[in-house]
Design brief:
It contains 4 helices and no strands. The radius of gyration is 18 Å and the shape is elongated. The protein is mainly α and about 100 residues long. α2 crosses α3 and α2 runs antiparallel to α4. The chain has a domain of about 70 residues.
Length: about 100
Amino acid sequence: MSAALQAQITAPDAPAAGPGASVRPDALRASAQEFEAIFLAQVLAHLNPAPAGDGPGGSGDHGLFNAMFNEEMAKLISRSGGVGVADAVLREMLKLQEVA
């Protein structure tokens, strides 16, 4: 994350989210990371599709296992710095807060 973005997030005079509301920078960052994780899970689902046939235990649940694996990998990637989507989303959320 860039120093300018970090300074904007931790500024004590952060703009309000609406009439009388205050912005919690940690909540904005968490929302941006969650958005990035969902985006990455969709990308991983297309890059790592579940193979046809039975999964572990022969129950046919391989697709469910693969989806859960992709979601957890996406969360891990996002928490580890991500691919830049969370930073871009956070910048836009901060811009919207300044306009409101």
